[in-house]
C-alpha cells in the first residue's frame, strides 16, 4: 500500500504506527526520530509492546506518543539492558 502512490503513503503510514513492537533500544531511537519529524505518527501510536530494558529514553519516548492506550512490558532484560527508566 505504501508504494502505490504518495496519497496512499500519507494515509497508510500512520496506520503502521498504531501497534508497535520494540525489542531493542535502537528500534526505539529510530521510531523516535521518525515521530519527531512527523508528530502525527506519534499521535497514531495506540498499542506499544516493549521487550527488554529501555532505560530513561522510555520516558522521553512516551511524551512523543500521548495516545498510547495499551502498554505491554515484557521484562526479560539481559545484563546489557538498561532498566533505570523502569
TrEMBL record:
Please verify whether the record's keywords include Signal.
yes
Q: Give the protein's recorded name.
A: F-box domain-containing protein
Q: Which organism is it from?
A: Phanerochaete carnosa (strain HHB-10118-sp)
Where does the source fall among the domains of life?
A: Eukaryota
List UniProt keywords, sorted A-Z. Signal
Q: Signal peptide position in this chain?
A: 1-23
Amino acid at each position: 500500500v505504501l508504494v502505490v502512490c504518495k496519497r496512499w503513503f500519507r494515509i497508510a503510514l500512520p496506520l503502521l504506527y498504531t501497534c508497535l513492537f520494540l525489542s531493542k533500544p535502537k528500534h526505539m531511537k529510530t521510531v523516535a526520530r521518525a515521530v519527531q519529524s512527523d508528530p502525527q505518527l506519534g499521535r497514531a501510536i495506540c498499542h506499544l509492546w516493549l521487550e527488554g530494558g529501555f532505560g530513561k529514553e522510555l520516558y522521553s519516548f512516551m511524551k512523543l506518543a500521548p495516545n498510547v492506550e495499551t502498554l505491554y512490558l515484557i521484562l526479560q532484560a539481559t545484563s546489557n539492558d538498561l532498566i533505570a527508566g523502569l
